[in-house]
């Protein structure tokens, strides 16, 4: 069980930058920096020194938005460190799923007995990656569509400047939903694959991370939360979402709202009608606009979502309750005839 000690906290904070399974691993940050630099020098015709200055600009890294990102990062590590161990884990889901299939079909299946272990490992790694990407799309879309969830997801969209740490600018309630989503997806995939292929199931990993995730992170995933509008060729953006496309998701412009919910694959957005290409020389303003007065205060980041969520539930229940108490509006004649019927009864 997690113990809240200074040593544990330091290990957790440092772990975000030292663990290759985390987006903010120093190697991924370094590769993102190099990709941005090469992009700006080759395509933006910037001199390397001025490109470095832009990437490390003080007004970006010390902005009120960035300082709020750092505060959320530090606070969430403390909160989530004590919450996550108490949540449903993928092992419990996997055991449940395996037992359910075992009982339903009277014993274990032994699919493709002659298939080589590497092929099963590659298939499992790919399926896990694709299903996880779809689940991220679905949960992200729900966070925008359901007003109660949007109250919490707004914290991520309240960033007015983007830097790699913005990825962790999330309300703890969203963090809990994401942990549960991960446990369900991993548990279901592991349970089904172990049922079908037994102990031949394994994950193809690079430095302990899912190989596909490793490639995604190494190829500049951190640029999604940056102000370097790196675009892919148009045909490639139809398959993989570029950093510029996620920046569009953060745009304040109503034209861009509810676009590009996906993480890696563009197919979910294309399939469900939320896809948007990046634009050449796009210059975007980020955040929620003037609707939120103080987007970087701890009150807005942690307490306001609860207040808005409770307000939303209150409105729903009060409206329903009032509807039940108020007599239905029926024409007078009909009301009179109904009364007559009741009186006769
Ligand atoms: Zn969003
Ligand atoms: Zn984002």
3D structure, described in words:
The protein is mainly alpha-helical and 345 residues long. It has a domain at 6-224. It has 15 helices and 2 strands. It has helices at residues 6-18, 26-42, 48-55, 58-61, 64-83, 90-104, 117-145, 147-157, 172-197, 211-218, 234-237, 243-249, 267-271, 298-325, 332-344; strands at 205-206, 209-210. It has a two-stranded antiparallel sheet with strand order 1-2. Helix 8 (147-157) runs antiparallel to helix 14 (298-325). It is globular. 28% of the residues are buried. Residues 337-345 have low confidence and may be disordered. The structure holds zinc ion (ZN) (2 copies). One zinc ion binds next to loops.
Question: What can be said about this structure in brief?
Answer:
This protein has a domain of 219 residues. It is built from 15 helices and two strands. It has a two-stranded antiparallel ribbon.
Report the portion of residues in β strands: under 5%
Low-pLDDT sequence parts: 337-345
Q: What structural class should be given to the helix and strand makeup?
A: mainly alpha
**Major pleated sheet:** 2 strands, antiparallel
């Amino acid at each position: 069980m997690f113990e809240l000690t200074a040593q544990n906290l330091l290990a957790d904070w440092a772990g975000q930058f030292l663990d290759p399974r985390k987006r903010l691993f120093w190697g991924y940050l370094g590769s993102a920096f190099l990709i941005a630099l090469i992009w700006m020098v080759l395509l933006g015709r910037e001199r390397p020194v001025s490109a470095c200055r832009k990437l490390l600009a003080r007004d970006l890294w010390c902005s009120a938005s960035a300082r709020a990102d750092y505060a959320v990062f530090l606070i969430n590590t403390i909160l989530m460190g004590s919450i996550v161990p108490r949540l449903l884990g993928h092992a419990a889901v996997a055991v449940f799923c395996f037992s359910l299939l075992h009982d339903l079909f009277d014993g274990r299946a032994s699919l493709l007995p002659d298939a080589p272990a590497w092929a099963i490992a590659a298939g499992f790694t790919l399926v896990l990656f694709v299903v996880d990407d779809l689940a991220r799309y679905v949960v992200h879309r729900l966070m925008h569509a359901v007003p109660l969830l949007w109250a919490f997801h707004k914290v991520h969209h309240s960033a007015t400047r983007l830097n790699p740490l913005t990825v962790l600018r999330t309300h703890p309630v969203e963090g809990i939903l994401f942990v549960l989503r991960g446990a369900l997806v991993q548990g279901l995939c592991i349970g089904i694959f172990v049922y079908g292929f037994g102990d031949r199931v394994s994950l193809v990993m690079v430095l302990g991370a899912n190989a596909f995730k490793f490639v995604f992170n190494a190829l500049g995933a951190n640029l999604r939360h940056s102000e370097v509008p790196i675009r892919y060729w148009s045909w490639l953006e139809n398959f993989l979402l570029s950093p510029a496309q996620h920046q569009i998701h953060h745009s304040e412009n109503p034209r861009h709202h509810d676009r590009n919910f996906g993480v890696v694959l563009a197919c979910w957005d294309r399939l469900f009608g939320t896809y948007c290409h990046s634009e050449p020389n796009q210059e975007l303003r980020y955040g929620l606009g003037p609707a939120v007065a103080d987007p970087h205060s701890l009150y807005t980041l942690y307490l306001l979502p609860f207040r808005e969520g409770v307000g939303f539930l209150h409105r729903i229940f009060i409206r329903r309750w009032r509807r039940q108490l108020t007599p239905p509006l029926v024409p007078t004649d009909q009301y009179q005839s109904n009364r007559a019927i009741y009186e006769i009864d």
